[in-house]
Amino acid sequence: MSIKTTVFGLALSGGGHKGIAHAGVLQFLNEQGIFPEIISGTSAGSIVGGLYANGKKPKEILAFFKSVNLFSWSHLSFRKAGFLDADQFARYLEKEFGKKTIRELDIELYISATEIERGKLKIFHKNTQIVPAILASSAFPGVFSPVVINNKIYSDGGILNNYPVNTIQGRCDFLIGSNVNPVLMYNQTRFTSIKSIALRAFEIMMMQNTFPQNELCDWHIQPEALAEYSTFETSKKRMDEIFDIGYREAKASFEKIKDKIQ
Fold first, then answer.
1. Checking phi first, is residue 260 left (phi over 0); if not, alpha (psi -120 to 50) or beta?
2. Percent of the chain scored above 90 by pLDDT?
3. What is the pLDDT of residues 93-113, one digit of tens each?
4. How much is the pLDDT for 2?
5. What does the pLDDT look like over 165-192, one tens digit per residue?
6. Less CB within 10 Å around the terminal CB: N or C of the chain?
7. pLDDT over threshold 80, residue 198
8. CA-CA distance, 140 to 144, in Å (whole number)?
9. How many CA atoms lie within 13 A of 48 on its CB side?
C-alpha cells in the first residue's frame, strides 16, 4: 500500500531586496521538513525560487544577494530604457544557471513577467532558459532595461501579478504564500523625492493585484516589519535583518496553521 504525501507549493512575491525574506521563510520551512515541490515567483521571488530550485540552500541564497553589486557605475544603461542594464545582472545569474532551461531545474518552477506591447501576463515554464526568464520577471520599470525574449519585450511581472499564488493554485495539496510587500500608511514627510514617490506608487499598484491572492493560500506569510525596508537595500547588515524577519514571521505564523498540514 502506498502512502500519500502532501505536495507543497510555494508562491513568492516580488519586492526587490525585501525578497531576501523569502529565503528566511524557506529556511524555516526546511527545518520543519517542508520542502516545496512546486514554486511560482515574480521578480525577486523568481530569483529566490530559481536559485532554490537549482539546489541552493536558503543561506546560500542570502549570500548570493549580498554578492550582487547592482548599483555600480559599470552597470548604468545609457542606450536602453532603464537606469540599469539587465545584461549586467545576467552575468551573476549565468554563473549560477548557465544555459539551463526551467525544465532542467530540480523543482517545478513558474516565473511571471509582463509582455509590454500587449499588456499581458506571461508565465515562463519548462523550455524557457532560466536566466532570461528571471531577468524579464525582475525588470523593474524605469530601473532595469526591459528584456527581449523571442522578439517580445518583457518587464517586471509585478506590474500584473506581483504575488503569483493563482499560478499554482490546484497544482499542489497545500499552498504557502510569502508576500514581502506590506503596504502601510506613512506620514507625508517620507515622500520628498522622485524616487520615494515612484517606489510608493509601484508599491500601491502591487498591493492592488496582491490582495486577492491572499485568500487563495493555505498559509499566508506577510512580515509587516518589512515595510520599514527599502526595495533596493544595499547594506549587507540590513539584508541579514530581512532574512531573519522572514524566518521569524514564518515561525510565528506556523503555530496557527500547523494542524492543517497532514
1. alpha
2. 63
3. 999 999 999 999 999 999 999
4. 39
5. 999 999 999 999 999 988 655 545 455 5
6. N
7. no
8. 5
9. 35
Among residues 3, 9, 5, the alpha carbon closest in space to that of 177 is found at: 9
pLDDT of residue 21: 98
pLDDT, the chain, mean: 86
CA 53, 58, 63: angle at the middle one, nearest 5?
110
Residue with cell 502506498: 2
Q: Which triple of cell numbers denotes residue 31?
A: 527545518
Residues 36-67 as b or e (16 or more Cβ within 10 Å = b) = bbbbbbbbbbbbbbbbbbbebebeebbebbee
Region 227-236 average pLDDT = 85
Q: Are 48 and 12 in contact (CB under 8 A)?
A: yes
Higher per-residue confidence, 201 vs 62: 62
